[in-house]
Amino acid sequence: MGPRWKGKGSKAKALADPMSKIVLQLHSCLIQSNSEGLLCGCSVLLSVEAQQADLLSRSCFGETMVTVEKDKQWFELSMEEAFYLCYALKCLKIVEDQCPKSDDQIWQYMKSRSALFPYLYKAYSHLRMKNWVVMSGITYGADFVAYRHHPELVHSEYAVIVSSEEEGDADKRLRVWSDIHCATRLCGGVAKTLLVLDISRNGHSVDSPSCLESYTVKERTITRWNPEQCREDHTIVESENGAKAGI
Amino acid sequence: MEEVDSANILGEPDMNDVDDQEEEVYYASVPASKLQPRAVVSMARWNNEMGIAEVVVQKGTFSKTTGIVRSGKLYYSIEEVLFLVEIGALLLLDESDTGLSLEDIYVKMSGGKYKFCWEEFRAYRQLKSLGYIVGRHGIPWSMKGAKSNCESIPSQGFPESDKVLNLESEEIRSVIGLFNEMQINKVRPVFNVYLPNSKFRKSSPGDPSFVLCFTRGYPPSKVELEALEGQCGSIPLKFCNVEQGRVSFFSFDTVELPVLP
Lengths: 247, 261
Description:
The structure holds two protein chains of two kinds.
Chain A: H1 10-16, H2 19-32, E1 36-40, E2 43-48, H3 50-59, E3 63-65, E4 73-78, H4 79-88, E5 93-96, E6 99-100, H5 103-113, H6 117-129, E7 133-136, E8 144-147, E9 158-163, H7 177-189, E10 193-200, E11 216-225
Parallel strand pairs in A: 1-5, 9-10
Antiparallel strand pairs in A: 1-2, 2-4, 3-4, 5-6, 7-8, 8-9, 10-11
Chain B: H1 2-10, E1 42-47, E2 52-57, E3 68-70, E4 73-76, H2 78-86, E5 90-93, H3 102-110, H4 118-129, E6 133-136, H5 162-184, E7 188-194, E8 210-214, H6 222-232, E9 237-243, E10 246-254
Helix pairs in contact in B: 2-3
Organism (chain B): Rubus argutus
Domain tRNA-splicing endonuclease subunit Sen54 N-terminal (chain B): 40-92
Keywords (chain B): tRNA processing
């Protein structure tokens, strides 16, 4: 299942405006404005001006919040998004109670909020570093969905499930056949491919974000094979159901 | 090709339909068999000890893609026998040359004596009905065409003689032994599957389109996947899940998402 662009010209538009460039602009723009995000539960709140707001929207970081304030636009970032801007791109400071937090402190905080955060973050940053747009996949029962470019131009291609066998009991998804049926059936219905990102810590700990570099990511798709549709040649024909496509 | 013909009359309901179509379920009565009796019927004699059947009368074109050839003789495995008997293309004789009914054969298979696995047979039947060519993984079609590629056992050309046949059946049994060991690890490669191909030759089968694997109870783990991938090299793997009477096939393929601009 290749990319499904939304309407004519979307592909050309995406090609002319690569995501890496938009993120680069966001990077310098956030640095210039010395942006600070406020740690708030499992979210990081960020208030920005028009230019940053435009870049955050175009690069799909966070969700805009509706407030009465006219001069400021508030964004709510997920933990992965915030930590990516903070730790990987180094263009966002995260504060709690007006007190700036170190990378290690934020890492500990986010880990305490979600035991799987190290794996989810590794998966998120892995795809982001390849310039894929990564957004929440919760409505598809997945961790993330991955887009080739902005969701306005293209449908998401993958529903991403993050898996780590090292985590044992904390990660029990896709361990029984009915889960595999369920996930592939759902993905097929919304024209996505199920992508499992297997994170290995390779013996390294989860104590500090500096361990992330030693983690490895293996990409695997799980697809259903239909013997009735694949008799002719070697290409695996996926069942397509464009009518029910997602965002 | 007869295999293709049989696809139309023996097609299983579409298991993989993404639409929410209910399968046809019959309330009043089961419809009568649509299979036509065949004019040409092969005959094979069951070998209790080896758990395979030696073909004694060969008719039709099934032998092009069914059975293994050893020393000029054609042998059918249990699932091959059962499939051919079910579609009326084979008459199975017992060791005293008495014809066995389908019921006799089901009784034989259900005994657990012959390492027969109903779930594997379900997958075999579905693929064969659609014209796929299905052989046992690790058991060469013929000793001539035996290749070590993706086979569990190293195989070499054997001179053809009756003595060697016995040796070879030893080999078959040792291969089955290998399968049993793998069953402990839950995951086992079972069938080599080739796409429908009228030019298929047992003496040069080439690489299968994929190796069909079965698991015991659970989807394959990462470790199991990697071990099997290492074993089968470049040949793709698929995994079969037979549950609640449904046969499903899944690929767990390693991919590499491109780095986008």
